[in-house]
Amino acid sequence: ANAHVGVVGLAVMGRNLARNFANNGYTVALYNRTTARTDDLMAAHGDDGSFVPSTTIEEFVASLERPRRIVIMVQAGAGTDATIESLLPHLEEGDIVVDGGNAHYEDTRTREEALRAKGLHFFGVGISGGEEGALNGPSIMPGGSKEGYEAIGPLLETVAASYDGTPCCTYIGPDGAGHFVKMVHNGIEYADMEFIAEAYDVLRSAGLTVPEISAAFREWNTGDLDSYLIEITSEVLDQTDATTGKALVDVIADSAGQKGTGRWTVQIALDLGVPVNTIAESVFARSVSGHLDLRAAGREHLSGPAHSFTPEDKAALIEDVRQALWSAKVVAYAQGLHLIRSASEQYGWDIDVAGVATIWRAGCIIRARLLERIRSEYAAGQLPTLLAAPSIAAGLADASDGTRRVLARAFEAGVPVPGFAAAVSYYDAVRAERLPAALIQGQRDFFGAHTYQRVDTEGTFHTEWSADRSETRLD
Ligand code: 6PG
């Protein structure tokens, strides 16, 4: 019993994480339900480090030093529960079970409670960075007991990515906090990807070629927009299809998939009453893209504007789109971080937003230059919203004209920009002196006697709309 850590589930993420532990000098116990995967890993990488493969779960558990540290890397859902069930009879008090999948945080809360009752530490750990990240350094978002973190945290911090020497892994909070933060990470990822797609679409419909757009992204990646997603976008755009000789992006079917984390982000935001309209529009945009019958009907029956969209000055348009992209991205982060703060209050997680920004700076899919700015703004003090941070507010003010020009042009030309529009609408709503919500309150009072408050005096009021229209004060 000398393995430092064990990995159950050796599909690509589990396999790469196991190799990452081994590359960092840990002895790694391995178990997979079908032994072929374990054998494959041993055949290909068994000599890269110290592995202890097992063919039964008993053997696997027995090969671990105590307290045992076991990382489950199976498909989220029933597979996770089945794995936990199979481990339980062999575990002892103080052992640590980590779920590294994209679990729903409510499931993580349930599992944590059940395992805590048995004297075990259960960790719901968000791991971002895809296959490459799992092998070379992901961003890791662990949620569970503080005590358990002392035993598992140092290992996770060692295998995580690092930014200026700081690991992209930090204790997030109890029970579901880590998986919640990973879910919001994915919600922001959806928004970021949607904005990039809209930026591309606006430029494309203005007549720019795919190579010109790719060059614009590459250029943007040297400035404020510097990020992994911008970088891979130019690579995707550069790819030529071997069969047709066209840009690959022109032969990929235009309906986007999704596995659930973006949708969960929006569902939970609705429950907590936190406006995340950029993320919601990003989920809906993927959903619209997949409704092929709806789109066929739309193409057949609906006409667009007569306007075509030819810019006089390509360079100026590219700069405007860059500004629209940056502003929208900032709004999506503001919304995601707001959601994290609300959930943290709701569940008593005490999540440090600066800490979250710290571990998103490298390793994860949304890693971006902007995150260092977000970290330093939150480290400098509490913020009611990211948008209120001085450097962010100033950046948004600078980008405002360009952003609005992009929206105006897109609407005139009939290019769908739901993400950009959501971002600007949110920005304008939160900075408005007065909102038309006053009129909505009037309507609610009219048809349902739902009452309203006044700006000039305390109390709850109702107008007798269908009688003499006099106002009464109800309390
Ligand atoms: C990551 C990614 C990863 C994955 C998601 C989203 O952080 O490494 O977010 O978790 O890409 O599963 O995938 P979908 O787009 O399929 O929902």
UniProtKB/TrEMBL annotation:
Binding of NADP(+), residues: 9-14, 32-34, 74-76, 102
The protein, known as: 6-phosphogluconate dehydrogenase, decarboxylating
Sequence positions that bind substrate: 102, 128-130, 185-186, 190, 259, 286, 444, 450
EC numbers: 1.1.1.44
Similarity remark: Belongs to the 6-phosphogluconate dehydrogenase family.
Task performed by this protein: Catalyzes the oxidative decarboxylation of 6-phosphogluconate to ribulose 5-phosphate and CO(2), with concomitant reduction of NADP to NADPH.
6-phosphogluconate dehydrogenase C-terminal domain segment(s): 178-466
Catalytic activity, as annotated: 6-phospho-D-gluconate + NADP(+) = D-ribulose 5-phosphate + CO2 + NADPH
Keyword annotations from UniProtKB, A to Z: Gluconate utilization, NADP, Oxidoreductase, Pentose shunt
Family matches, as Pfam families: 6PGD (PF00393), NAD_binding_2 (PF03446)
InterPro entries: 6-PGluconate_DH-like_C_sf, 6PGD_dom2, 6PGDH_C, 6PGDH_Gnd/GntZ, 6PGDH_NADP-bd, 6PGdom_BS, NAD(P)-bd_dom_sf, Pgluconate_DH
SUPFAM superfamilies: 6-phosphogluconate dehydrogenase C-terminal domain-like, NAD(P)-binding Rossmann-fold domains
SMART domains for the chain: 6PGD
BP-aspect Gene Ontology terms: D-gluconate metabolic process; pentose-phosphate shunt
Assembly, per entry: Homodimer.
Pathway noted in the entry: Carbohydrate degradation; pentose phosphate pathway; D-ribulose 5-phosphate from D-glucose 6-phosphate (oxidative stage): step 3/3
Active site: 182 (proton acceptor), 189 (proton donor)
Gene3D superfamilies: 6-Phosphogluconate Dehydrogenase, domain 3, N-(1-d-carboxylethyl)-l-norvaline Dehydrogenase, domain 2, NAD(P)-binding Rossmann-like Domain
Catalytic class of the enzyme: oxidoreductase
GO molecular function, one term: NADP binding
